[in-house]
Amino acid sequence: MSGRTAEPGVIWSRPERTGRGPRPAYSRKDIAGAAVRIADADGLDAVSMRRVAAELGCGTMSLYNYVPRKEDLHELMADAVIGEYDLSREPSGDWRADLLDMAYRTRALMHRHPWLPRMMSPVHGFSPNGLRYLEHALSCMDSLEVTYGAKLELLAMLNGMVTTFVSNELATAERTRSLPWSEEQEQAVRGAYLIRQLAGGEHPRMSAALAEDNGPIDLEAGFDRALRRVLDSYVA
């Protein structure tokens, strides 16, 4: 991307548009919105200044006055989708319940924007909407008597678990779509193979695990259990 420099920078400390000339034709919100629409439709790798310019109906080079680097464009995108959180609700006073609710909303956000797990970074957490999200999350933990550092660590652990879970969900769904057979057909074949492998008695613990529960995995229940275990284990 033209304009890329070897020096770090923060897009939020820059004016909306550099250079002289008439009033800016586009806002960062416009540019981020166009990039998000492209990523939602065709994936993160499809996002480029050329595609964003085409989406906005302007020349590619003119956008460099607004967004000089690809890293900046990604940060605008991350901030835009973080802005979708409804932070108007007051904390309930039950920090576990509030963080559980936020984790479910994060999962839903990532499914709306399947490219988002690839963008998860502490750097993006300090964008304007990122800071509002963090402030709200910390306010939900006012009754948790640990340091702010410990609270931020807990939030990072929770978001990390959600990101990993959703990444696996998305990868599994993508693989399933690419196959010429159904998910049920594959499960039947693999299940039969597993039973044959365990029949020889060389894997007694796995045999016991299968005998204990050989039904389909309940992903919703597993997600909820994992979240609650993270929350319940983090009381200093």
UniProtKB/TrEMBL annotation:
Domain HTH tetR-type: start-end pairs = 25-85
Q: What InterPro entries does the entry give?
A: Homeodomain-like_sf, HTH-type_TetR-like_transc_reg, HTH_TetR, Repressor_TetR_C, Tet_transcr_reg_TetR-rel_C_sf
Q: Which domain of life is it from?
A: Bacteria
Concerning Gene3D superfamilies, the annotation shows: Homeodomain-like, Tetracycline Repressor, domain 2
| Residue segments, region Disordered | 1-26
Q: Keywords, A to Z?
A: DNA-binding, Transcription, Transcription regulation
Q: Is Lyase among the key words of this record? A: no
Pfam families from the UniProt entry: TetR_C_1, TetR_N
DNA-binding region coordinates = 48-67
PROSITE patterns registered for this protein in UniProt: HTH_TETR_2
Q: What is this protein called?
A: TetR/AcrR family transcriptional regulator C-terminal domain-containing protein
Please report the organism this UniProt entry assigns to the protein: Streptomyces albiaxialis
Q: What is the lineage of its organism?
A: Bacteria, Bacillati, Actinomycetota, Actinomycetes, Kitasatosporales
